[in-house]
Structures are given as structure tokens and as C-alpha cells.
Amino acid sequence: MNAAVVDLHVRWLGRTNFAKGLALQEEIVAKKREDPSHLDELLLLEHEPVYTIGRTPDQSSLLGAAHLPHPLFAINRGGHATYHGPGQLMGYPIFDLRRCGQDLHKYLRWLERLLIELLAGYGITASRRKSLTGVWIGNRKIASIGVGVRHWVTMHGFALNVCGDLSPFDQIVPCGINNVTMTSMEKAAGQAFSVADVAASFEKLALDRISHLRTAAEPISAPQMQRT
Q1: In the chain, where are the structural domains located?
Q2: Sign of CA dihedral 194, 28, 70, 135
Q3: Which residues have a Cβ under 8 Å from the Cβ of 21 and sit 6 or more positions away?
Q4: Active-site residue among 44, 116, 175, 198?
Q5: Contact present, 192 and 163 (Cβ < 8 Å)
Q6: Angle at CA of residue 142, ends 162 and 18, nearest 5°
């Protein structure tokens, strides 16, 4: 961890079961709600194959769901169906947005810029697309973003396709975008990458760029203990 940054704790969890990763996020969110002085955290990990869908009444992106070859989780993020699995870097920032101007759009754009800068470091040119949250290489999507926010504390985050099999995306309409093609760092650059190595690069970048997200507001004090 960068010694110059003392208010962000980054953890690399390696290959982690989705349910276990979700439970850990919930645990940290609960701690931050109980004690607002608790450090912001960034969890970096990789999942076993799984599909997820956000809090939307429109389930059409699942294409019926019964045919899916991997487990499906309905979770409290925005957005439609997506796939997570080996070869994909998952990033779960659990941040208090009250320290970031209570600005969700600013947070989403920060995540996109961070991913674009990360890819540039590997010689891959990527960009945003208007009205389509995420990161793209031309008309191919390389990173998806879906977040949940409760009491201004974020959870869930981004999925960056680093390497590996992308065919499970063919079983759904990724992010609810018809005819979208998913790509990866491996496909874009024509060379192999390690999820763990990319995670280490993202950690360094996040620690260096977290100040771009912060506001100059006074630190949030811990709540007074209530007696019963």
C-alpha cells in the first residue's frame, strides 16, 4: 500500500466464490454505516463462473435464464444481466460518497477514467461511449460497471475482461445491449495477461488517483454511541 495514502485499504482476494465476495462486501458496508470513520476499501478479485442481474423489473437480458450454464444471482446494483468468471478482474470499491461530494456520476466517471488509464498503460486504447456506462474499444466492450449505493456507501463496481473464455456472454444480452460484442485485454493486445498482475497495476493507480475523487470536506466523525 502507498504510504502517502492512508484512507484507502486495498485487498487482493484472488479467486473467490461470488456468494463469499458478496457477503464480505455486505460486512464492510455494515461496518461503514456503524462507524463512518472506517476506512474506504477496494476489493480486487476473480470469480468462479456466475451470472448476475441488477434491480430491474426487465429480465429480458437473461433470455429466459433456465438455459444458463452457471448460477444466477439477483443483486442490488443497477443494470441488466452480465457474466463473471475466471480471467476477469473484479473491483469492488466500498466508498463513502459523502467524502466525494455525494456525486454518483462523478464516481462512475472516475471509475471509467481509471480503467481507461490502466488499459493505456498496457498499450490498449479505450474510451467511454455516451450514455453507455463502461469502457469500450471501438464498439466492443471490455469493462462493465454496475454499482449499488446505500446511505451514500457504494458496493459492487467493475468487471474488466483480462483474458480467458468470453463465450458465456453469448448466453445473455450483456448489460441489456443488443448485439454488443465483448472483448478482453488479451484479444485487444494479442498477448497474454495475468489477472493478478493487472490487479496489482490497478491497485497502484487507484491509490494514486483516489485524491481526484475526494472533496475537501471535513472528515466524517464517528456517530455518538447510543445507550440502551
Answers
A1: 8-213
A2: negative
A3: 13, 43, 45, 47, 90, 92
A4: 175
A5: yes
A6: 60
Residue 21 has pLDDT above 90, yes or no: yes
Measured between alpha carbons, how far is 40 from 129 in angstroms, rounded to an integer?
Answer: 28
Q: Which letter, b or e, does each residue of 147-163 get, where b requires 16 or more Cβ atoms within 10 Å of its Cβ?
A: bbbeebbbbbbbbbbbb
- The residue ranking higher by pLDDT, 121 or 2, is 121
pLDDT over 80 (residue 92)? yes
Q: Which of 216, 165, 164, 213 is nearest to 192 (CA)?
A: 164
> Do the beta carbons of residue 206 and residue 92 sit within 8 Å?
no
pLDDT at site 186 = 98
Contact 108, 147 (CB under 8 A): yes
Measured at the alpha carbon of residue 123, what is the angle toward residues 105 and 128, in degrees to the nearest 5?
25
Please, what is the end-to-end C-alpha distance for the chain in angstroms? 40
Q: 80 — alpha (psi -120 to 50), left (phi > 0) or beta?
A: beta
* Confidence bin at 228 (pLDDT 50/70/90): very low
- Please give the class, per CATH, of domain 8-213: alpha beta
Is 175 among the residues known to form the active site? yes
